[in-house]
Recover the amino acids of this structure.
């Protein structure tokens, strides 16, 4: 089973959730389950930068993952960061089963235009397939 976990304010509506769920189920050839966490735990936040640590969220996701989850993808509306970069779109566990992807910077391109449709699930799929590769280039996919 692929566990998709929303970690943020409120919860996406069913139509939005289906746009993420269906392509991931097809890509990994497994059914998914969904759960939502209302808000990000305070210990995940880097108060100095006003962003959330993707590494801490990834560890938190793994600690909470049910035993029957083959893969776990955390989706969040928090702006993610790692110490050496100003932001990241997501982070995957190297050789593992978990990843986290943020929607915070996907709503618009840097020139002010709308982001491409389906970007969130594409980034999630790429993060989940990053097994064995220490870095996956975070570029917009159209």
């Amino acid at each position: 089973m692929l566990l998709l976990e929303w970690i943020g304010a409120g919860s996406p509506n069913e139509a939005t959730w289906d746009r993420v769920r269906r392509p991931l189920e097809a890509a990994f050839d497994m059914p998914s389950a969904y759960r939502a966490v209302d808000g990000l735990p305070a210990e995940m936040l880097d108060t100095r930068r006003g962003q959330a640590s993707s590494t801490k969220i990834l560890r938190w996701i793994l600690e909470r993952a049910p035993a029957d989850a083959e893969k776990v993808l955390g989706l969040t509306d928090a702006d993610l960061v790692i110490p050496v970069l100003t932001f990241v779109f997501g982070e995957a566990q190297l050789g593992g089963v978990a990843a986290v992807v943020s929607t915070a910077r996907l709503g618009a391109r840097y020139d002010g235009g709308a982001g491409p449709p389906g970007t969130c699930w594409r980034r999630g799929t790429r993060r989940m397939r990053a097994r064995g590769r220490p870095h996956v280039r975070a570029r917009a996919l159209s």
Notes: The chain has one domain: 2-128.
